[in-house]
## 1
Amino acid sequence: MDYSRIRDFVMSYSHDDTGLLKDIHDKALEKDVPIIRREAADYLKVMLQIVRPKNVLEIGTAVAYSTLLIADTLADVFGENETPMYDTKSTWYIDTCELDTDRITEARTNIAKSGYKNIQIFEGDAAETLRGIQDKIYDFIFIDAAKAQYKIYMEEAIRLSHPGTVIITDNILADGDVLESHFLVEKRDRTIHDRMREYLYMIKNDDRLETAILSVADGIAVSVVKKN
C-alpha cells in the first residue's frame, strides 16, 4: 500500500492556516524552526474539542505556533472567539515551556499580537521548570520538545495530572528512525533512537496510563492518565 498517496489524499482535504497563524507558520518554515505538522495539528484540534480542557500545559513552545493553535481552538470551544482581547478571567489558560531565548522572544511577540492574556511562558529547561510546578494540575498536556527527555517529561506530566488527563506526545517515530535497528541509525541519532524506544515501551506498559500509538504525521502517542 502506498501510504504517501494516502497521506496526499487526506491532506488535500485539510485547510491552510489564515491570519496570524499562517504568518507564524510560514516564517517558521523559512527559518527551519520545528513546528507541529499539519496532520498532527488537525488531530490536536479535534482532541481539544473532545476533551474541552480548561488547564493546558505545553512542553515546547518554540515560536508559539502550536500554543496559539491550542488557544484559538479553546477560544472556539468556550465561545470566546468573538472577544478581541482575553484576560486572566477567561475560562481556560495555557502554561508553556521553552528554553531557547531567541524563540522565547519571538513567541512573546506572537502571543502579544494574538491578544491572548491567559498564556504564560515558563523560561528555562523544561525538566527543571516542571519539577518546580507544585500547585497546578492540568487537564491536557502536549509534549513536543527535546525527544531524548520525553521520559522525564512524562513522569512530571503524570505528576501534574488527574485521572482523565489527556497527554499527547508528538514526533514519536523520528521520521521512521525508531523503526530501525540501533546499528542502522546514524551514530549521532542513536541516543534519541534508543530513548524514544524506551519511551514508547514505558507509555505502553505503565499501569498509570492507557496509551494509543498512532502513525499520524511523524507519530503521535495519546495517553489517558488512569491514576497518579
## 2
Amino acid sequence: MERERMEVFLELFREEPPVYIQGLERDARQQGVPIIRRGTGDVLRFLLRTRRPERILEVGTAVGYSALFMAEYMPENAGITTVEKVASRLAEARRNFERHDSGKRICLVEGDAAEVLQDLVEQGCQYDFIFMDAAKGQYLNFLPAVMTLLVRGGILVSDNIMQEGDILQSRYAVTRRDRTIHARMREYLEVLTHHRELETICLPIGDGITISMKRQEAANEET
C-alpha cells in the first residue's frame, strides 16, 4: 500500500512521454504484453539525456515500446540495435517501428539473443549503452558477450531483477517451476555486484533494476 501511494505521488512530477508512446503503453497493458514500467522509463530517460550514448543495444524488443521510448531521448546521431525472437512480437514491433521510427534509427534483429550477441561480438561491434530486458533466466548466459560488446565507461541496465518480488523470497517460498529462474537471477546479481570490471548499483524501481558501468581501467589480474 505504501509503495502504491508513493507511485501515485511521484506521478505528479513525472514527465509525460509523447502521445504515441502513451498509446503504445496503453495498448500493451491491455494486451498483457510485458513492457518497462514508468519508473524504469524515468531512469532510462535520465541516463540517455545525461550520458548521451550513440550506440545502444537492447536485448529483448517485445513490441518495440522501450526502443521507441529510448529513441525519444537519445541524441540525434544515436542508433539502437534491438533483438527479439518471438514471431508475434517481431511482427508487432515491425509495425510499430514502421509507423513511428521515421528516422530509421532503430535496427530490429531477429533471432535468439545468445546467438545474435555472439554474432555481434564476432563482427567487432561495440556499444556504449546496453539495456537487458529479455528472458530473465538467461541474463547470466548473456553477460560474457555483453561485457565484450560494452565499451569501457559504458552503461549496462538490467530490468526486472526482482521478479515481481520473488527474488526476495527463499527458493522454497516460490513455486517449483520458478526456482530455476529465482536461482539464476540471484546468481546474476551476485556476479554483477562482485564483477571486477563493473561498478553496479541495484535500485528498487519498477520491478527492480541494476545500473552497471564498465570500469575505465582494466581489472588487475593479480589475485
## 3
Amino acid sequence: MLDDVYNNKIIELAANISHIGRLKNPSRSVTKVSRLCGSKVTVDIVLSDNIVTEFAHEVKACALGQASSSIMASNIIGSTVDELLLIGEQMNKMLKEHGPAPEGKWSDLGYLEPVRDYKSRHSSTLLTFEAVNEAIQDN
C-alpha cells in the first residue's frame, strides 16, 4: 500500500531537509528533472581531493524525492566520490533489483525500500543520486 511508502519517517525526513539553497562558488552544479513526474533537483558541490567539502541543493519534488534529498544532504559532506557512486548504485539495485538497503551512515535510505513496488515513484526517489553522481563524475 502507498501508506507503507509515505510512512511517518519519510514525512519527517521530507520536512527536515538541510543544506537548502545554492553555493556561491560550486565546483559543479547539476539540475535533474524527472520527465515522469516533474520533480526537479539542483545540486551544488565543492570537491577537494575527491571528497565533498561543501554541498547545497534546491529540491522541488514529492515527499519521496524530498526524503531521499534529505538523506543525501545529511550524509554527503565528507563522503568520497567512490562512496557516492556506490550509494547511487545501491539505491538503483534496491529499487529496481530488490537489492539490500545501504548500511552504515546511509542506513536511513532503507526507509525508502517500499518504493521498489511502485515503479512510477522510482524517478523522483533517485533524482538526487543522479544529480550528485553526474556532478562528481564531471568534475
